[in-house]
Every structure is written in structure tokens, then in C-alpha cells.
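Minimal example, chain plus zinc ion.
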Amino acid sequence: MNAPKGWYESVSMPRFGICIGCEGKIPYVSARNTEKKLGGRSRSHRSSTYSVASWSRQLCASCQSSISYIEQIGCPHCGRAVRCTDCERHPLFVHGLTANRSAVAYSEEMKAWLHRFKFQGDVGYAAIMAGMMLHRYELLAATIANFHQQISIAPLPLYERLRRWLYQLPSVPYPDVVTFVPSTAERLVDRGFNPAERLAELLAISWDCPVMPLLTRMTDQGRQSHLGRSGRELALAGTYRCHTEALQMLCANTNKNTSNKSPMYILLVDDVYTTGSTIRACAGALTGALRNYGISAIICSYTWARA
Ligand SMILES: [Zn+2]
Ligand SMILES: [Zn+2]
């Protein structure tokens, strides 16, 4: 939906938008009114935060009601809606991952949306998915903070505590750095973008924190959707490495804030958590590299969907 530019456009333009989900008509909402409320420092920052903040206005009521949010955490480790024995048998902390949380369950509707975003290149879905993740973050992060006490140790700056008190926001931690599951060079050429990177960028812009490409993917073992958990882990062994330059930057930044002794909170973003093999492999590579650089960190992952 584009905002009308002047009186002629506002009279001649149809007073409805098109739903990104079903392409049905939805009531038109002035983009300018929304933008005023959002503020922002630069044009690009404003347009990114605008598209994420107004994500629900790009969906009709029917598509909004089809979103399968995870309402209750059944597994405190991977954030699945039901209890899962997999995390009990293969704990995430072994790979250095504190917990995973996902905004939605991977229903047929959600699968179709991801397919259009990831495989058909409909990048308009990035803002919709990032919007959903943003919308659910505080609720989901609070469940990690309750479960893992060390998350809440990081002291928040005074202005942030004041802001949360004023707006009655829950006192959940926000990441110090957002990173993402990397894509291979071949897939980047094929798709033209990395879905996980798009989501990470939009979240980081909204939270006003840095997004860093901490990981790289060495080889492409092809699609793993047909493999089981152990098959995927075998295929992924040694696939992810840390990006040396990005780690050096992170290290330099950490050394600048030597007064802050609390561990750094790193959020690893991906589109879907299926067996968790990719996230585990990434967290393992990240944990090993951070240890070598002497950086103390808590790593959590946040995916749009949990299969
Ligand atoms: Zn719709
Ligand atoms: Zn689990």
C-alpha cells in the first residue's frame, strides 16, 4: 500500500489496499498517520520501522486470524507448544544455546507464507514475519528470563528502565547483538537474499541494536528437509564457522565496555526451527569462537516458526 502524495491521488486512489496473504481487499489506512507516530532518525530507518510496525495492516482480518501464534510454551528449551522429549535427550545447552523461541507454529498456512517469501521471492513477507516476531518477542523472552535466571542479570540502562516503567512494558532483556543463520553463496545467488538475514535486520532496526554477520557457511550439503535430526547433524558437522572480522569487531566493542561485566546477549535469528540441527550447529560454532576470544555470552535463538 502506498500513501497518497497529494489531493488528486487522495481523491482518485481506491480506498482499499490489497492483503498480502490472500490478495483480497482491505480497508485503506493512511501511511502518513502511522509514520508520524513512529518517528525515527533517517528516511531508511523510518521506512523499515514503518513497514514492520504496520505489518498487521497489510493483512485482512481472515489472514490475521489464521496466524498460528504459539500461545503456551510446552518445552522451555526449544519453545515448542508441546512438551518435547528431543530436548531432554539432546539438550540445547550442550551446544551453548540457552533456549530457542519461535513466534508461530508451522501450520499449513504459515508454510505457504514462508514458501512465497523464501522460494518465490515475495520480499513483502519479510516485514510481516519480522512484525510477528517483534509483536511476540517480549512475551516469549519473558519465558526465557523466568526459566534461565542468568538472562535477567544484565542490568538495563536507567533510561530503558524508565521507559519500560512509563509504558508498563515487561522487563525483558533485549539483545546486545543480533546475528543470523548464514546462507551459502549459491543460495544467495539463486534467491538474491538470505531470509534469516532480512528478518534479523528488521528486528535489529526496530530494537536499535547492531546486526552482525558472525557466522559463515562453508559448504552446501543440499536440502536437508528429508533428513532426520541425526542425519542433519551429521551433514552439518563443521559446516558453520565464525566470521573472523565480525568477531574481532565484537571483541573490540566488548573491550571498550570493560566496566560491564555481565555476559553479552546474542540473539541468533532464523526463519524456521525444524529439528534444531542448524541452530545447534550455529550456536556450537559461535560458542567455541567466542570462548577463544574470551567473550562471555548468552546465546538464544529466535525463529519465526517452530515446526
Ligand atoms: Zn487476506
Ligand atoms: Zn524442545
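Residues 75, 77-78, 80, 84, 86-87 surround zinc ion (ligand 2) (CB under 6 Å). Residues 7-65 form one domain.
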